[in-house]
Write a structure and sequence with these properties.
By secondary structure, this protein is an all-alpha fold. It contains four helices and no strands. α3 packs across α4. It is flat. The termini are far apart.
């Protein structure tokens, strides 16, 4: 039985799915473009906070799916949230704009 929390196991996609995702992203971009750098940075920080809030469940599921040690997954989770916060700082300062 496939664990419904998995984003990998049992996933099937086709060209129509790719087209629908591309269309949705294209339609969403004007809204994103209208956001401020601070709003974009805040979004990245909120994603990091949500990942940390679900830390135990995410680590448990990732260990079950990958069979990697809990410490390795926990480290990857910490690295991911750290990178999200680092990128939030880059965005907030506008460093990515050249």
């Amino acid at each position: 039985m496939t664990d419904p929390r998995s984003i990998i196991a049992g996933t099937r996609s086709d060209q129509a799915d790719v087209g629908a995702a591309t269309t949705a992203a294209t339609e969403a971009f004007p809204t994103y473009r209208a956001t401020s750098l601070d709003q974009r940075a805040g979004f990245l920080e909120a994603v990091a906070a949500e990942i940390e809030a679900d830390r135990d469940e995410i680590v448990e599921a990732a260990v079950a799916e990958s069979h990697l040690p809990q410490a390795r997954i926990a480290g990857e989770l910490g690295r991911t949230t750290g990178q999200l916060r680092m990128f939030a700082g880059v965005v907030r300062r506008g460093d990515h704009l050249g």
